[in-house]
Amino acid sequence: MNEKLEYYNGSFCTIKPNHLKERFGSATGKNIKVAVVDSGWDYSQNDLRIMQGVGLISDKNGFELIFSNDYNDRIGHGTAVTDLILQLAPDVSILPIRVFGSRLETSPDILVKAISWSIKKEVNIINLSLGTLLSEAIEPLYKICEIARRKNIIIVASKSNSDDWSYPAIFENSIGVASGDFENQFDYKYFNEEAIECIAKGYNQYVLWQGNKREYLSGNSFAAPNITGIISLILEKYPNISLENIRTFLLEYSI
């Protein structure tokens, strides 16, 4: 099987060849709809794969819930996250939901509303390259994530860049992702007994930025969309499968 030992996370572990690309490489994410709850999409970059999105935040007050058709990205984060998903799954449809204004800050209420709106739009996956550390957000956030799970909507959430646990990444009804150093976007490690299940490529990712520029970016935020892209390919081949089925696939193809 050409397994090898690699030093990872403080110890040596077995690294298997990744056959996921062989199994799902012909998939493109066709007929899969992904909600990207983030800072929106840069209007200057026309792309037919980007659906009409919404804005849920006031630019004057970053914690005020205001519904609008303005999903224009002010800071580039959501555009970069979206680009990573499209690199892996070029035929997915992206639904941008803007919850950030001019800073990477939002409120739990806005986040819950964004997930709720995504559910109503019947997306297949919700990408959350964000999270909260607030304990008062746990209950309402968990409840809306559970509603998504029961409708077979997969939530992929990045871990906080701090050492603290963040929500919803550690919920069992979501797939938590942290950043690792891998050769390509198809490579990842999956730990089914850990709160943060996936370690995916998150270092030095060449991504689309504002003004049709490209930048090298790193962080947990940019690891989550790689898992979202992989799940999009799986769902194209096996539509409407459950979160537990997705976890089975992720475990099987973990390197």
Brief characterization of the structure:
With 255 residues, the protein is of the alpha/beta class. The chain contains six helices and 13 strands.
Name some characteristics of this structure:
single chain; 255 residues; alpha/beta; Rossmann fold; nine-stranded mixed sheet; two-stranded antiparallel sheet; 6 helices; 24% strand; globular
In the sheet with the most strands, the strands line up as 5-4-6-3-7-8-9-11-10
Give the C-level CATH assignment.
Answer: Alpha Beta
CATH superfamily: Peptidase S8/S53 domain
Kindly state the number of beta strands: 13
CATH topology group: Rossmann fold
The helix tally amounts to 6
Q: Mean pLDDT across all residues, rounded?
A: 91
Low-pLDDT segments: 1-15
The ordered string of helix (H) and strand (E) elements is EEHEEEHEHEHEEEEEEHH
Overall geometry comes to globular
Number of domains: 1
What is the first-to-last residue Cα distance? Answer: 12 Å
CATH architecture: 3-Layer(aba) Sandwich
